[in-house]
Amino acid sequence: MARLLLIEDDLTIRTPLIRALRDRGHAVAAASTALTGLRDALEDRPDLVVLDLGLPDLDGAELLRMLRAVSSVPVIVATARDDEREIVRILDAGADDYVVKPFTAAQLDARARAVLRRAAPEDRDADPALVVGGLRIDPRTRQVSLDGVPVELTPREFDLLHHLAGRPGQVVTKRELLTEVWRIPYGGADKTVDVHLSWLRRKLGENAQQPRYLHTVRGVGVRLAPPAGTVG
């Protein structure tokens, strides 16, 4: 049973959605404002947050950025717009997935289960840890360390780094990253990859101008490789 936090101010949407998700076996808590939702997410530590963008006290995308600064809880955003710019905006802000209004409880339940599967630790007998230079990426515990120091990553940042670490020294295209990491078709949304790479670089203590592990190949993609002079 997953513990979901629904942040939705519209009572006519919130009440039936809570009932339907509970009928599908989830434990559901709800908040009607952004700040209440942020507090509940930090105090109650749900397995997944469903976030409406149209909240009365704060833009949902701003709340998402605030939440991402302090938590790696998976987030599905509910939006009334389905254009590419809106989708890129919410993915860039740190969403793991999105649903477009109006949506059914069955659709949300399916997306929630898919996000939770991706965020769950892998079987302990599968997929050994990957080591690239001083980086260690363990898919079983979804933990990363750099030179022995833990690195806190969001679920999407972990998936991105793990995908690259599985292909050390190879140039991985943005098309492949969007398809394999984001599970969305390639449609000119390069900014989504660029923003997450920027966040990942910052957490690894580097930048695009002075890369150590993440090397951009202009017009092609990105390559993960150990710093010069290291082994692995």
Automatic annotation (TrEMBL):
Residues 3-116 form the Response regulatory domain. Residues 127-226 bind DNA. SMART domains: REC (SM00448), Trans_reg_C (SM00862). SUPFAM superfamilies: CheY-like. The keyword Signal does not apply. PROSITE patterns: OMPR_PHOB (PS51755), RESPONSE_REGULATORY (PS50110). Gene3D superfamilies: 3.40.50.2300, Winged helix-like DNA-binding domain superfamily/Winged helix DNA-binding domain. Residues 127-226 form the OmpR/PhoB-type domain. Keywords: DNA-binding, Phosphoprotein, Transcription, Transcription regulation. The modification 4-aspartylphosphate is found at residue 52. This is DNA-binding response OmpR family regulator. It comes from Micromonospora purpureochromogenes. The lineage of its organism: Bacteria, Bacillati, Actinomycetota, Actinomycetes, Micromonosporales.
